[in-house]
Amino acid sequence: MNKRVVITGLGALTPIGNNVNDFWNNLLAGVSGAGPITKFDTELFKTKFACELKGLNLEEHFDRKEIRKNDPFTLYALIASEEAMTDSKIDLEATNIDRFGVVWASGNGGITTFENEVLEYAQSDRGPRFSPFFIPKILVDTPSGAIALKYGLRGVNYCTVSACASSTSAIMDALNYIRLGKADLMLAGGSEAPITRSGIGGFGSMKALSTNNDDYKTASRPFDVSRDGFVMGEGAGALILEEYEHAKARGAHIYAELVGAGMSNDAYHATATHPDGLGAQLAIQMALDEAGIGMQDIDYVNLHATSTPVGDSSELNAIHNISKGDTAHMHVSATKSMTGHLLGAAGAVEAIASIKAVQNDVIPPTINTKEVDSDLPQGINLTLGEKVEKKVNYAISNTFGFGGHNAIAIFKKYS
């Protein structure tokens, strides 16, 4: 019999809130995190806005030496993880740290460091002078090691990379290590710091980013007939997963139970999702089967919905098809309309949104959508404009990534 796995700690660092409470309240209020890019001069760029973190002073969290030694994506990971650890109220001295692991995710790793170091080298006449921290700063697995080092966690430790599905993959792996009896606790999540010249320029050249510079606050508009691409975001999300009996024995606060997860691949295109959402359907069905439920039991779906024409359509097709058109009982929403797309960190941040929806029986809205594309499947409640109070016993968190990756998690109300 599989062990039960529950969520006992949360941490979030997002463009609409630097902690879980602020993030959640701003989601419910429909706050847009979009604004002009401040990290570099965008004069020559087609896209001049993004969802940056706001009011974050790294020196309030780290000394200057630590800031210098780490890329922002690692620092973001440490901040979100600290909130999750504090929230979980784990007594590390009374915990078997050999059975406490970390699975952390990122799609791009230390892209800020890589860009800065290579540009400095290219512009220098002093030869190949690189920082001795260059390599460890860019490695995608650096945050998982840094988190373990900070808390002395000696359990399973590695990173997952599946593009924008990365942190949901991390959550699924953490779930399975506990179920297999190889860990009692796992810290899982993801972080991303992609608002750089190469990040914005690269995604922009693929025509993946919105160029709605004149109306950037509403540029992330999933399902809208005028949607023209996603808005880049940055930040981190962290979850503490814990074996149920272990959590109960220490009197932990339990947010929700993680009852199912699934991963698949579209095997269709290097970057585009399958138009009918076949890979997404497969992963969702895997998660439903593992949870022992059907789509008729799902009350809320936090969609991947990035505000791209192809992506939004294929995902709603998947929901429509797997539900056999019976979607009246559930609400769906696209929280990327507020946070932007946090790439490899999106899954963890949206898992937190899903967990809070289950905990509080409130569904966050999709904002900015004024005219729903008539070519999209009909009859799906997109939760437009305002939050909805509704009993949420089960919630699905969807994430999809370049390379055809699909990762799904299902959370159940704890009782």
Describe the structure.
The chain is an alpha/beta fold. It folds into 2 domains: 5-249, Peroxisomal Thiolase, Chain A, domain 1; 262-413, Peroxisomal Thiolase, Chain A, domain 1, CATH 3.40.47.10. Helix content is 33%, strand content 19%. It is built from 13 helices and 14 strands. The chain has a 10-stranded mixed beta sheet, sandwiched between helices. A two-stranded antiparallel sheet has the order 2-3. Strands 11-12 form a two-stranded antiparallel ribbon. Helix 11 (309-322) links the parallel strand 9 and strand 10. Helix 10 crosses helix 11. The model has no long low-confidence stretch (mean pLDDT 96).
User: Please, how many helices?
Assistant: 13
**CATH architectural label of the largest domain:** 3-Layer(aba) Sandwich
Task: Report the end-to-end length measured between terminal Cα atoms.
Answer: 20 Å
> What is the fold-level CATH name, i.e. the topology of the largest domain?
Peroxisomal Thiolase, Chain A, domain 1
If strands are numbered along the chain, what order do they take across the biggest sheet?
Answer: 5-4-6-7-1-8-14-13-9-10
Secondary-structure element series: EHEEHHEHHHEHEHEHEHEHEHHEEEE
Shape: globular
Task: List segments where confidence is low: pLDDT < 50 over at least 5 consecutive residues.
Answer: none
Backbone structural class: alpha/beta
User: What is the CATH H-level superfamily of the largest domain?
Assistant: Thiolase/Chalcone synthase
By oligomeric state, this entry counts as single chain
The helix content, as a percent range, equals 25-40%
Number of β-strand runs = 14
State mean pLDDT (0 to 100 scale).
96
Query: According to CATH, what is the class of the largest domain?
Result: Alpha Beta
Backbone CA Rg? 20 Å
Q: How large a portion of the residues is in β-strands, by DSSP E?
A: 15-25%
